[in-house]
Design a protein that fits this description.
Low-confidence stretches: none
Number of helices: 10
CATH class: Alpha Beta
CATH topology: Beta-carbonic Anhydrase, Chain A
CATH superfamily: Carbonic anhydrase
Largest sheet: 5 strands, mixed
Number of domains: 1
Helix content: 40-55%
Strand order of the largest sheet: 2-1-3-4-5
Structural class: alpha/beta
Strand content: 5-15%
CATH architecture: 3-Layer(aba) Sandwich
Order of helices and strands: HHHEHEHEHHHHHEE
Length: 201
C-alpha cells in the first residue's frame, strides 16, 4: 500500500475515504493485512502528513483504529478517549484534521462491551471519571430500560449517534464542510467479539 500524499488526498472523495476504511476492516477480519513497509512510511511522511480520515474511538486496548481498519503510518488521524466522547479538545482536533490537514471523513466509533458506557449506565462516580461519564449520560437517559448487557450495547450505539449530532451542532467548521460535500461524517460500532465494524449514516 502506498503512503498518502497531498495528490492522493486531494483526489479522494469522502466516499472514497469511507470505502477505504470498509475495505481495510474486511482485510483485518480476514487476517490479510495490506503489504506495506511501515519504516518506509515513517521516512515518506517525515516532511508532512496527508491522512484521509479522522477516527474518534475509545481508549479500550482492544480497539486500535489503525489496526482494525488496516491502515499505515500517515493514513488516519486517531483520536482516542474513554467512551469516545465529544469535548472541546476533540472537536478542535477534528477541525484541524479536516480544515487544516485535509481529511475527508470523520468517524465516531464506539464498541461492544464498553467499560465507560457500562460505568455510565451504573452511574459510577470516581474522581475525574465522573465528569467524563457525564458526557455519556444523555445516551443513558435516551435508553429507558433496566440495566442489562443489552442496554449497554444500545447506549453505546446511542452515544455514537449523539456524538455525531454534537459535532454538527458544536462545530460550525465541520458542519459547513459536510454541507458543502467536502467531508462525510459517519458513526460506527466495533465488535470486540469478531473484529467487525458496522457503520451508521
Amino acid at each position: 500500500m502506498n503512503t498518502q500524499t497531498k495528490i492522493t488526498q486531494d483526489n479522494l472523495t469522502p466516499t472514497d475515504a469511507y470505502n477505504m476504511l470498509v475495505e481495510g476492516n474486511k482485510r483485518f477480519q480476514a487476517n490479510s493485512k495490506a503489504d506495506r513497509n511501515l519504516l518506509t512510511q515513517v521516512s515518506e511522511t517525515s516532511a508532512g502528513q496527508y491522512p484521509f480520515a479522522v477516527v474518534l474511538s475509545c481508549i479500550d486496548s482492544r480497539v486500535p483504529a489503525e489496526l482494525v481498519f488496516d491502515q499505515g503510518i500517515g493514513d488516519i488521524f486517531s483520536a482516542r478517549v474513554a467512551g469516545n466522547i465529544i469535548n472541546e479538545d476533540v472537536l478542535g482536533s477534528m477541525e484541524y484534521s479536516c480544515k487544516v490537514a485535509g481529511s475527508k471523513l470523520v468517524v465516531v466509533m464506539g464498541h461492544s462491551k464498553c467499560g465507560a458506557v457500562t460505568a455510565a449506565c451504573k452511574h459510577v462516580e470516581l474522581g475525574n471519571i465522573t465528569a467524563l461519564l457525564d458526557k455519556i449520560q444523555p445516551a443513558v437517559s435516551a435508553v429507558d430500560e433496566e440495566m442489562s448487557d443489552a442496554k449497554v450495547e444500545k447506549v453505546a450505539a446511542m452515544n455514537v449517534q449523539l456524538s455525531i449530532e454534537r459535532i454538527r451542532k458544536e462545530s460550525s467548521i465541520l458542519a459547513e464542510m459536510e454541507a458543502a460535500g467536502e467531508i462525510k461524517m459517519v458513526g460506527a460500532m466495533y465488535s470486540v467479539a469478531d473484529g467487525s465494524v458496522t457503520f451508521y449514516e
